[in-house]
Amino acid sequence: MKVVQKITDQFSIGLSLLCAVHCLFLPLLLVLLPGLGALQLDNEAFHLWILIAVIPISLIALSLGCKKHNSFRLLILGSTGLMLLLFAAIWGHELVGDTGEKVLTLIGSSLVAIAHFVNLTRCKRNQSLCNNA
Predict the structure, then answer these.
(1) Which 8-state DSSP code applies to residue 90?
(2) Among 34, 61, 120, 130, which residue has the fewest nearby CB atoms (within 10 Å)?
(3) CA 133 to centroid of chain Cα atoms
(4) CA dihedral angle for residue 105, residue 8, residue 59, residue 24, rounded to 10 degrees
(5) How far apart are CA 85 and CA 20, in angstroms?
(6) If you average pLDDT over residues 120-132, what whole number do you get?
(7) Which residues, including other chains, have CB under 8 Å from residue 25's CB and lie 6 or more apart?
(8) What is the DSSP string of 4-59?
(9) Higher-confidence residue: 111 or 67?
(10) What phi and psi values does residue 112 have, to the nearest 5 degrees?
(11) CA atoms of 19 and 21, how far apart (whole Å)
(12) pTM tops 0.70
């Protein structure tokens, strides 16, 4: 397995999970640890910064995987998740409310993480395919 493929998939999974944890647990953490409020983690800009990191990394990893596996399903799955994340970060709160934004974010980050996990699994299962691409 190429190192770039593995690292970008793992990094994208980590960022997707960070996004999900941020949406689910940040309100609880702010209540339990009020000092975290000074970090501005509840700021909407946090979502945009994660997206700025996850979009190019995910597209690179999924494109490399698509090229290796000759299957566009993972690219479509991951891209759908990225579009949901982008929609939730930009228009989610205004169009679907706070709860809808969280649901869209969780679904989007789950789709991205699943796409990258399957990409990693396919590479591990078929080392010769990934090493020759």
Answers:
(1) I
(2) 34
(3) 25
(4) 0
(5) 10
(6) 66
(7) none
(8) HHHHHHHHHHHHHHHHHHHHHHHHHHHHH-GGGGGGTTTSTHHHHHHHHHHHHHHH
(9) 111
(10) -65, -45
(11) 6
(12) yes
Residue type, 3: V
Give the separation between CA 96 and CA 81, rounded to whole angstroms: 17
Stated length of the chain? 133
Tokens of 36: 């975290």
DSSP state of 126: T
For every residue of 61-89, DSSP letters joined together read HHHHHHHHHT-SHHHHHHHHHHHHHHHII
Render pLDDT for 25-62 as a digit per residue (tens, 0 to 9).
666 666 666 665 555 555 566 777 878 888 898 888 88
Nearest-angstrom CA–CA distance, 46 and 34: 18
Nearest-10 Cα torsion for 84, 9, 59, 73: -70
**What per-residue confidence (pLDDT) applies to 29?**
66
Nearest to 122 by CA among 81, 53, 114: 114
The span from the CA of 94 to the CA of 47, in Å, is 15
Residue type, 80: T
CB distance 88 to 47 below 8 Å: yes
